[in-house]
């Protein structure tokens, strides 16, 4: 094969000796040309020619500029008229109103009770998504997408209600083609599990470092203003607390997994991902004042740390910031800038540290290392539930830490947000939201991390009155800072009536499509499909953007390194830039593949790197239920109702006439036996099958034999039939 000269950067875009040794080996001015599209030789070529799905660009993971709808808002019936008459929102006139003057649709699980009719409820939720799109005025897409973030408090309501709510949210988002991001708050609001608080081992110990022996039965947090929390600060290491969350996640995550797998290849971006936590921390979103337990049965209006209220004990007190103010009970609010790990509150975290056997400081004092270890261990637990137990895609999981409290003196380091298969996320407010480098440079701009994804699931630079230019500059400063993948305004209600903020968001959303030089967004190449051949598995790859370099890596293990890369790379490590197909040699055991894409360097001059999902290649069936492979052909759920499912599939349009195509449904993912349905369906692209048992999980696939190919299997679609 003749050689051609490529620019050195084309293959050597970044030095990643430890991650991709192939690249360094291939780094030379003259590089052997890799096969062009469909140029895999031998019997494989016929297979590759038959893989075309007619989809050249798949936005599996664009950058999202999102708005987070708060789940703590209160209904205000006085706003109904304006919402119903807003032509862009089209609030269903017959449905009960569930909004207020900041948002026409409040997104929380109480809507299940407030709008009991499911059909009406889905229509109301659809109006909530339309509200965002209409008021922002953006309905395009590409490498930068508008998304809506919805919060679910896993222990804040009955699990069955949460499942119903999430199913309805998904149905509404699907109908509106709105990218959906779901945040699972597994820490802050746990009012539905009062049974947990009957056992003191489930909540933290409080007190000065020298006497941290008192169970903290009450807590406070400050989210714009101080709130008394109705439950104790949880022990993040508690087995019962974790089991309660795991049970709810096991009920909810399959709803999102099935949604993602039901989307056709070019609509995978409509599942924007999962945020884990709302600033997971110890002693920040649950803090307790010294002797705070004494106030449990006293009016919250007289709680310490609040401005002095009439009839409450208190008065002037000099606070750590040097100001003299009047506070209830002569107690200043927390101050992590001067108050170290506790912010001048009682220190928390001792119970978890004891259970984990963590070393503490002199005389049993708490350390930042111990607090970080507690949060990291809890993220490990969440990661196991989301990634391992419920098989969600790694490139769409975001952690959410605070990291902004007290800087170097505060309770947690920035690095606590990093955990293997998650994209690290931090809250950014005020000046940090306008200039993220001021906070995040020590963590994000390091040589190890500068190319890797990061996120800000909670972001707000201004209050009311900021100019459109200020908003636009702030959005761009964050969205264009290194490899940002998510900016989520916290909350939508803070900008819904602010034309300057909305106009700025619309403009920055359009920057990528407009070719703005400062905008640098890389979307990962993904595997569109695969086929089993006698000499291996042929992959069909989505197209790569100009100026990007991509690599296929493979491993005998499914582990994810701290940088998000599959590892160890011991099976495949090859450049696939410019190729739309690749043959992977047959393996005796299941193996795992990932596509790595390196691309543009933004105004900071640093390249970006993004990863595809991890794909499972089974030695017997090349597309297993544990992969996000789009299919060869591709099968996905079109609709589902009680007792029936409609499944659609996509085949290569150049398949010879008369090719036998079979549609299978079985109760086993191995399809041995095919015990539910086996139908020849060539010439068709959908099939509806009734008579299925509610609550039962089924598996569907499409198969077509071909003497030139072998047997082509689709991905395996797993679905659970809805109850009546």
Protein traits:
5-stranded antiparallel beta sheet; 14 helices; about 725 residues; alpha+beta; 8-stranded parallel beta sheet; about 20% helix
What do you see in this structure?
The strands form nine sheets. The chain has an eight-stranded parallel beta sheet. Strands 19, 20, 22, 23 and 24 form a five-stranded antiparallel beta sheet that branches. Strands 27, 28, 30, 31 and 32 form a five-stranded antiparallel beta sheet that branches. With 724 residues, the chain is an alpha+beta fold. It is built from 14 helices and 32 strands. The longest helix has 24 residues, at 239-262.
How would you briefly describe this protein structure?
The protein is of the alpha+beta class and 724 residues long.
């Amino acid at each position: 094969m003749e050689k051609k000269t490529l620019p050195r950067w084309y293959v050597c875009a970044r030095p990643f000796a430890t991650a991709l040794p192939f690249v360094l080996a291939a780094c030379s001015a003259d590089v052997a040309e890799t096969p062009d599209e469909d140029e895999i030789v031998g019997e494989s070529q016929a297979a590759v020619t038959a893989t075309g799905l007619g989809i050249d660009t798949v936005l599996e993971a664009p950058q999202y500029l999102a708005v987070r709808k708060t789940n703590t808002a209160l209904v205000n019936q006085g706003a109904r008229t304006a919402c119903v008459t807003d032509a862009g929102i089209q609030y269903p006139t017959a449905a009960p109103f569930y909004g207020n003057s900041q948002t026409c649709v409040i997104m929380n699980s109480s809507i299940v009770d407030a709008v009991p009719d499911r059909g009406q409820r889905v229509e109301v939720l659809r109006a909530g998504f339309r509200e965002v799109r209409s008021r922002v005025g953006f309905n395009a897409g590409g490498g930068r997408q508008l998304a809506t973030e919805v919060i679910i408090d896993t222990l804040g309501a009955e699990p069955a209600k949460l499942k119903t709510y999430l199913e309805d949210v998904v149905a509404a988002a699907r109908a509106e083609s709105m990218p959906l991001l779901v945040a699972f708050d597994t820490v802050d609001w746990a009012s539905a599990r009062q049974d947990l608080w009957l056992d003191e081992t489930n909540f933290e110990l409080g007190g000065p470092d020298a006497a941290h022996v008192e169970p903290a039965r009450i807590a406070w947090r400050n989210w714009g203003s101080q709130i008394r929390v109705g439950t104790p600060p949880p022990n993040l290491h508690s087995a019962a607390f974790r089991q309660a969350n795991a049970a709810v996640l096991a009920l909810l995550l399959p709803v999102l997994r099935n949604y993602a797998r039901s989307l056709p290849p070019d609509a995978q971006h409509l599942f924007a991902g999962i945020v884990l936590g709302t600033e997971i921390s110890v002693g920040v979103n649950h803090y307790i004042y010294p002797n705070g337990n004494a106030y449990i049965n006293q009016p919250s209006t007289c709680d310490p740390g609040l401005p002095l209220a009439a009839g409450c004990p208190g008065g002037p007190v000099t606070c750590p910031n040097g100001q003299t103010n009047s506070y209830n009970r002569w107690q200043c609010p927390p101050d992590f800038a001067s108050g170290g790990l506790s912010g001048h509150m009682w220190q928390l975290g001792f119970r978890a540290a004891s259970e984990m056997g963590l070393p503490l400081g002199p005389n049993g004092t708490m350390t930042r290392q111990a607090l970080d270890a507690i949060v990291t261990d809890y993220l490990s637990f969440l990661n196991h539930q989301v990634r391992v137990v419920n098989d969600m895609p790694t490139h769409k999981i975001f952690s959410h830490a605070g990291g902004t409290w007290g800087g170097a003196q505060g309770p947690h380091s920035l690095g606590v947000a990093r955990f293997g298969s998650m994209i690290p996320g931090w809250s950014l407010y005020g000046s940090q939201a306008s200039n993220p480098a001021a906070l995040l440079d020590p963590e994000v701009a390091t040589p190890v991390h500068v190319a890797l994804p990061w996120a800000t699931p909670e972001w707000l630079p201004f209050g009311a009155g900021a100019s459109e230019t200020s908003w636009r500059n702030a959005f761009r400063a964050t969205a264009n800072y290194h490899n940002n993948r998510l900016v989520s305004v916290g909350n939508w209600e803070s900008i819904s009536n602010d034309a300057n903020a909305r106009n700025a968001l619309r403009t920055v959303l359009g920057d990528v499509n407009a070719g703005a030089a400062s905008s640098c967004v890389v979307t990962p190449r993904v595997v569109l499909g695969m086929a089993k051949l006698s000499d291996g598995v042929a992959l069909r790859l989505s197209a790569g953007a100009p100026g990007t370099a991509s690599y296929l890596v493979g491993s005998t293990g499914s582990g994810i390194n701290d940088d998000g890369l599959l590892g160890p790379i011991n099976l495949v490590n090859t450049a696939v830039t410019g190729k739309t197909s690749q043959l992977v040699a047959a393996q005796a055991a299941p193996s795992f593949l990932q596509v790595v894409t390196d691309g543009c360097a933004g105004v900071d001059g640093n390249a970006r790197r993004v990863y595809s999902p991890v794909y499972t290649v089974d030695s017997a069936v090349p597309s297993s239920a544990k992969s996000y492979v789009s299919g060869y052909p591709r099968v996905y759920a079109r609709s589902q109702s009680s007792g029936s499912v409609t499944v659609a599939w996509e085949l290569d349009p150049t398949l010879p006439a008369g090719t036998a195509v079979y549609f299978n449904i079985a109760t086993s993912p191995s399809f041995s036996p095919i015990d539910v349905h086996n139908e020849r369906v060539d010439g068709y692209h959908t099939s509806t099958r009734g008579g299925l048992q509610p609550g039962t999980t089924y598996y569907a696939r499409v198969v077509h034999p071909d003497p030139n190919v072998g047997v082509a299997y689709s991905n395996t679609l797993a679905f659970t039939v809805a109850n009546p």
